[in-house]
Design goal:
Layout: H1 3-29, H2 36-68, H3 77-103, H4 108-142, H5 145-163, H6 167-183
Helix pairs in contact: 1-2, 1-4, 1-6, 2-3, 2-5, 2-6, 3-4
Amino acid sequence: MKATDYLMKEHRLIERGIAALEAGTLKLEAGVDVRPGFFLDATDFVRDFADGCHHKKEEDILFITMAGKGVPVQGGPIGVMLAEHEQGRMYNRGIKSGVEKLQAGDPSGQVEIIQNGRGYAALLRQHIAKEDGILFPMAERIIPLPEQEQMWQDFDRVEREEIGEGVYEKYLAFVEAIEREISSL
């Protein structure tokens, strides 16, 4: 199986998490009382799954393998993806900062949550589209199938040894819970 299939499966879960986050920001902006912890939960999902699990596989395995096949890191598609990963981290920190302000009684935190939540959702949607539509097909062309199968095994090893087994299932249940929460408001 292609290693990129593994990453695209994770993209679908990340998209669901982003949609829940964005729905929360829209409700917050419309004056609905959204539990501040909802946004902390969303930032934890981003930090632990999207960044900690998914981006780790991309950055530590896929991008390194692609660079070894001649794809430039600086000034090339890998560099763009890395810059966008960092931009996403900044948005996530901004959401968390907004929640902390809101919890401390500073209403400006609401604006910070909304702006960073929307920015993150927009960034990740176009980022995922570029990876699925451009970067992953490029990887599939330049990385022979046996190496892709080895990358798949490396992804699995990263989960078991560095992140923890059952991470996908854990975050699937988590995303389902935040989807239910936000749709009930």
